[in-house]
Write a structure and sequence with these properties.
Shape: globular
Largest sheet: 8 strands, mixed
CATH class of the largest domain: Alpha Beta
Radius of gyration: 24 Å
Structural class: alpha/beta
Low-confidence stretches: none
Distance between the termini: 50 Å
CATH superfamily of the largest domain: Acetylglutamate kinase-like
Number of domains: 2
Bound molecules: aspartic acid, magnesium ion
Mean pLDDT: 95
CATH architecture of the largest domain: 3-Layer(aba) Sandwich
Oligomer: single chain
Number of strands: 16
Length: about 425
């Protein structure tokens, strides 16, 4: 274990404007004698903005593309102008201008490459911009930092938009490039979300993938811990959008956090946990506005997992119930035919159940997919479905929690294991 390295992940919200960037400096000041590797996301909603720009490029709408690109440039240059005094802002402004020249030039690029490949090389500008600005500002304020290019560190395959990490190469690169950098500098700033394949082409790890990047860096550096700085006080036992009296989970295990994210809890990117669990590196989720508060600690210790029930809500679901038209029983041969058809329809199943004559399954309410499912199953099955239902998962349930979530609703389907109760409700 490399006791001296901390990995911090700053998400988009934690660097969304100049005050937020200044706040990040205040957080760093709380750790004066530590070696810190910072993994930063694009500022605010920049990735959404870049995705929109990319659509305009794809539709060849040059006028809108240029005006939207200018908005994004203004957003970044405003932040720079607020952060840096006139005498020192020139260098970073010219870096940012060069990037926006590239963005504008991108429009005229020959479309020989496939769409996903172009997407990755385009949306990655967001993290390049944020990391350059943050690193410069840290350097200016704390006098000690360097920038690292994660495209030279995180090696992936060529599965653009959801690239898979080549661990061996990545660990090697991080050790050869980052370790010596961290000997010289206390703080290194690099990008979340992005990497490169063996040809050096930019890839991304999937939307919201910066948490995962932090996990990768921490694993490779055998860091002391990872902290994800967020706009919530930690991991809560339910999404505050659906639930009034949420409780913060002070401490849970990797195992529990993986279960929660499997069922749909969305605080941490699901792939983040494994690389940390493998090395026993604890993960903290903390509030960037309340950095001295304890937040949530996730580690190997499972002793607190059952303390507080957690609730995960998935709204906008469609519950299908299908019966073979020939009234045959649902034996294994039928089930495997159903699964083949469902994978043909690219259906992602959130819960399923079968009886002698019928098979029920739940999918997200997506018009195109629902239509595809009906089209593919109708020749051999009677297909019935309920739209606008919700799926509620309760971890570590009891009678009170279950009465609470089902109150005033009709239960269409119900499943329980020793730890988890799930209800499809209307
Ligand atoms: N900026 C990327 C996104 O918004 C990655 C991340 O934020 O984790 O998806
Ligand atoms: Mg983001």
């Amino acid at each position: 274990m490399n006791d001296s390295i901390l990995v911090f992940k700053f998400g988009g919200a934690s660097v969304k404007n100049s005050e937020a960037v200044q706040n990040a400096i205040e957080i760093l000041k709380l750790f004066p004698n530590e070696k810190i590797l910072i993994v930063v996301s694009a500022m605010g909603k920049t990735t959404n903005h870049l995705e929109h720009l990319f659509d305009l490029f794809w539709e060849q709408d040059k006028v809108s593309f240029l005006s939207k690109a200018n908005e994004l440039k203004k957003y970044h240059t405003d932040i720079i102008n607020e952060l840096f005094s006139t005498s020192i802002r020139q260098e970073i402004l010219s870096n940012v201008t060069t990037i926006f020249e590239d963005i504008t030039r991108f429009y005229d690029k020959k479309c020989g490459k496939n769409k996903s490949e172009l997407y990755d090389s385009f949306v990655s500008y967001g993290e390049i911009l944020s990391s350059l600005i943050l690193q410069k500002y840290i350097h200016n304020q704390l006098n000690e930092s360097a920038w690292a290019d994660s495209r030279e560190l995180i090696r992936t395959d060529a599965n653009f938009q959801k690239a898979n990490v080549n661990w061996e190469k990545t660990i090697h690169n991080i050790n050869v490039i980052c370790q010596p950098q961290l000997k010289k500098h206390n703080i290194i700033v690099t990008q979340g979300f992005i990497g490169a394949n063996s040809k050096g082409e930019t890839t991304t790890l999937g939307r919201e993938g910066s948490d995962y990047s932090a996990g990768i860096f921490a694993h490779a550096l055998e860091a002391k811990s990872v902290t994800i700085w967020k706009d919530v006080p930690g991991m809560l036992n339910a999404d505050p959008k659906f639930f009034k009296d949420t409780i913060k989970l002070d401490k849970i295990s990797f195992k529990e956090a993986i279960e929660l994210s499997y069922y749909g809890a969305s605080v941490i990117h699901p792939k983040t946990l494994k690389p940390l669990q493998n090395k026993g590196i604890p993960l903290f989720v903390k509030s960037f506005t309340e950095p001295l508060e304890s937040g949530t600690k996730i580690d190997v210790d499972t002793s607190n997992d059952r303390d507080i029930p957690s609730f995960i809500f998935k709204k906008n679901q469609v519950l299908f119930s299908i019966t073979p038209k020939d009234f045959s029983f649902l034996i294994e041969a039928n089930l495997s035919a159903i699964f083949l058809k469902l994978s043909e329809a690219k259906a992602e199943i959130n819960i399923m159940q079968n009886s002698a004559l019928s098979f029920s399954f739940l999918v997200n309410e997506n018009q195109d997919k629902v239509k595809a499912i009906i089209r593919i199953l109708s020749p051999t099955f009677h297909v019935k479905y309920n739209s606008s239902v919700e799926l509620v998962t309760v971890r570590h349930y009891n009678q009170k929690t279950n009465d609470f979530v089902c109150k005033g609703k009709t239960i269409l389907l119900e499943q329980r294991t020793r730890t988890t109760a799930r209800f499809v409700l209307i």
